[in-house]
Write a structure and sequence with these properties.
Blueprint lengths: L1 E4 L35 E12 L8 E8 L2 E6 L2 E6 L3 E12 L2 H9 L5 H6 L3 E12 L5 E8 L3 H6 L22 E8 L11 H16 L7 E3 L9 E14 L3 H6 L10 E11 L5 E10 L4 H34 L4
Parallel strand pairs: 9-10, 9-11
Antiparallel strand pairs: 1-6, 2-3, 2-8, 3-4, 4-5, 6-7, 7-8, 11-12, 12-13
Helix pairs in contact: 4-6
Length: 335
């Protein structure tokens, strides 16, 4: 996998990935489409699929992805949306092999007699490209967008993404000392990926799904992204720290070739150490989250599984913290 970097950000392309929910990308600076003078097109794919993270665009939509001199634009049947090229901070390209026709192809192989299904599995696959892009919104928050592209297109795209050097960002938790604390708010800090080799697409999807899941958890207030510490009106009450400890990428092609044994091998596996802290420094709770997935959309599903587990653990931490505070107030009532 080739990687072009200025700061964290990821764009991912694969061939038939389904993402269950759209991540709302508030505060993204969208380039106006009306009355705009078209800029020179540097690269374009007419067969792109948006997976996750692009502003105002639902996941799993197909269309054209265009890089011009001033913007990155996705155009589909439901409309167009863009981000300024100056907001891009990192781009990576990768590829993997996937089964042809998904579940239909698997059922077809099962009907081939005399071991012919295993032989067919050796050739019933194709390559898809993954393009992962990171960008910052107007508040400085870090976002990731993920796309699928046809084979070899991500390599061509990468050659046109010349990014300007991005200055190091200030640590989010350290810029909020004098602002009021927002009740039940949480900052999802940038995950630590140093302990395992993890493709950019997986890194992007994990972070985006975690932010999305926490935003859809009713016990949680405002959810802040990494990097936007200076621009909001208050400080997060809690901080989620994520560190990868184990990663093993699965292969649908390997599972198909192995037949029934493939149900037990070649799965995607991820293990994280997650720490929850609060602004007062009194809370420091650690949990370990493990996810194992197989299937046509395992790279997205495993990310959402991690996010669901993390949101569940976080909700339990909030409830325990509330019980602890209530107990202290009962023992030591304010007079």
């Amino acid at each position: 996998m080739k990687y072009l970097s200025g700061a964290p950000l990821f764009l991912f392309l694969h061939a038939s990935l389904c993402v269950p929910h759209h991540l709302a990308a508030a505060s993204i600076q969208v380039v106006p489409q009306d009355h705009a003078v078209p800029a020179a097109i540097l690269w374009k794919s007419t067969s792109a699929e948006h997976v996750y993270g692009f502003p105002d665009m639902k996941p799993n939509k197909k269309g054209a992805l265009t890089l011009s001199a001033d913007a990155l634009t996705f155009s589909g049947k439901s409309g167009n949306t863009s981000i300024p090229r100056s907001s891009l901070t990192a781009v990576s390209a990768g590829n993997q092999r996937v089964e042809l026709w998904g579940m239909s192809g698997r059922i077809l192989r099962m009907t081939i007699p005399d071991g012919g299904g295993l032989a067919a599995a050796a050739i019933m696959h194709h390559r898809v490209d993954m393009l992962t892009v990171e960008y910052n919104d107007v508040r400085g928050g870090n976002h990731a967008a993920v796309f699928f592209l046809p084979a070899n297109e991500a390599e061509h795209a990468l050659q046109n993404f010349a990014l300007s050097p991005v200055p190091p960002r200030k640590v989010s938790e350290g810029v909020c000392q004098n602002a009021p604390v927002q009740p039940k708010s949480v900052l999802v800090s940038a995950p630590n990926w140093d302990h395992a080799e993890v493709p950019a697409a997986y890194r992007a999807l994990v972070y985006e799904h975690v932010v999305d899941r926490l935003r859809r958890t009713k016990e949680v207030g405002q959810v802040y992204r990494d990097g936007e510490g200076e621009s909001h009106d208050g400080c997060p009450q809690y901080i989620v720290h994520i560190s990868i400890s184990t990663f093993k990428q699965g292969s649908s092609v390997q599972r198909a070739f192995l037949g029934p044994v493939g149900m037990f091998v070649g799965t995607t596996q991820m293990k994280f150490d997650v720490t929850f802290t609060d602004a007062s420094g009194k809370l420091n709770t650690r949990e370990q989250i493990t996810a194992t997935m197989r299937g046509e959309s395992e790279s997205t599903n495993v990310a959402d599984h991690v996010a669901k587990s993390l949101a569940k653990h976080y909700t339990a931490v909030l409830k325990n913290a509330d019980k602890s505070n209530s107990a202290k107030n009962t023992v030591n009532p304010v007079t």
